[in-house]
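Purpose: get a first structural picture of the assembly so the mutagenesis plan has something to point at.
Setup: two entries, given in the order below. No constraints added.
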Amino acid sequence: MTEDRTIKILQLYPREMNIYGDWGNVLVLKQRLKWYGYTPVVEEYNAGDVFPTDVDIIVGGGGQDSGQVVIQQDLQQLAPTLQGLAEDGLPMLVICGLYQLFGRFFKTHEGALIPGIGILDMETHGGDVRLIGNVHSVSEEFGEIHGYENHSGQTFLGPGVKPLAEIRKGEGNNTKDSTEGARYKNVVASYLHGSLLPKNPAIADFLIEKAAERKFGSFSPVPRSEQDLADLSKLSEMARQHAGQRPR
Amino acid sequence: MSSFSILVGKLVRSASKLRGGGSALPGLVVEKIDPDFIRRTLADLPLGVAVVSGTNGKTTTTKMVVELLESQGLKVFTNRTGSNFTRGVAAALLGEVNLRGHLDADIAVLELDEAHAVHFVKLIRPRYSLLLNVLRDQLDRFGEIDKTTRLLETIARATTETVVLNREDPRVAGIAESLNGQRAVYFGLDASLRSTFPNDDEMRGSLAEALAATQQADVVLERVSEADADFLIDGQVRTSGLKLRGVYNIFNAAAALAFARTIKGDDLDSDALFEALANVEPAFGRGESLTVNGQPLELVLVKNPSGFRLGLKSFAAHGYSTMIAINDNYADGRDMSWLWDVDFESLAEGGVDVVSGVRAYDMALRLKYDDVPVRTIEPDITDGLKRFIKDSPGVPMRIFCTYTAMLAVRRELSKITKVEVVS
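Result (structure tokens, whole complex):
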């Protein structure tokens, strides 16, 4: 009998929250898992679906304000499940819209209060300017992070989470401090599209390693070809360098 | 009438043509010294103003509408240079009016950029408007796709008679509900073609979400092949030969037909209409074909995920060398996320010969994750293009490029072959 090397990636609300290339993050996880000799399975969860039990990585993306309204109620029902999984160390990547809803609340510019699911100790306030453009940030854990932001909500972190990175170019969480994104247990949260994972493979590998450790006790890659992976990291590095030179 | 401002504008226009300058400068001059120029000049046209807007396909569709209306004997004024901002319209007008400010035309058919159209329609209310689609394009400019929808809604509500809408784009079709007295006319697709035209909501699989087409459409695209297409009009199927390439251009032909039928009304010469349609040549960079070293070289403009997907679907990779040139200048959109919403698997078999442009490495990385082999990565477009042509002896070539990459490619190609130069 062959060893089970299946890793299940769950995409949260792709129907409503799919607008800024978030599929790229899922694709990168899927392909890298394959290249490391694992068997990736990708499932979608949309509002009203039955939540699958044996999930190993959760990925959530950004949407429009209208999309956030649609998933709002469903997400609240899902809150205890997601909280339990996050506490248990399940690796999760949430970008932009779902990053905001993983916090305690989102207060819109008009003053309406949208409750979040409180996995991350942070709050978001709707702003009157949209923060748009290339971002370059630096993280102790993952090194340089390159991406693109496009949001009007401004997020402020509480003591229960750490920032993912410190901004070098762009705005990140808000216009007041220089933080970008949030980290809690194995949850990685960020405002960055681009997509995030292709140009920042260290984050992809972190999610994969944590998923493998959680499911199998250890991460034991079986690389398809050393040369192939070397070519890939060279490509990622060149893409990062070129992105870093672009105007805001 | 201020013949003074018109004279100044005409002088600036010919002066800037001599230096090979931008097409909007003379318009800017007239806008400054005579801001009422456009409104006054367009106000007297017997059939008024018809506006074409939407995120994709404006240039080709406007060109089709103009040629279809001309086939009906109308004299049409249009902003042919693709300068789709207000001052571009002013610049185009300057070339056409006489010194007394009179425009000899029956109707103005104007391609308007959706953000600028909102200002334009405040100044001049169109009699007819054609709203093509709301696809994710330059989101970094407008923030959100719903905001783009609201821009198109403003155009629809400023229209005085008829609004022609894309029945298959839920955001555009939804505009019908916010009309304030305008008549709504639709163009659409046969159910068998709907899966070929993903809108932004369905792009990642959930086809079930596609809205059931409940509205009766004036023109329905029934079938598309390499050389011709079937349109269902008034219960009859018309087959038309086409010089246009790409399924999205052909769907826009349905839009142009519906718009021309709306404008012309009952006394329409249907045979002349279809003869004109069969003869429409693609607009520059929109699937046009040039000749390099005795081989065809096709330019396909790609600027958002739906357009790129349709481009890949429309132009089979087999038998062609392929180059992709991606820039991220302001006119292209700075955000590269959209490349990750396009599937490139159809290129896996033949691979991509050259990847070029400012964001060549982003594109190469994207292809790597779809297991598409890339032979050369050369961010410099001049060098990339030379390499592409050199490495493709005796093979037809195709270049997928973003807007400013296309301008660069055309500039280089104009040195070695005949290319229409558009300033």
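The helical segments of chain A are 23-35, 65-87, 96-101, 196-199, 201-216, 226-244.
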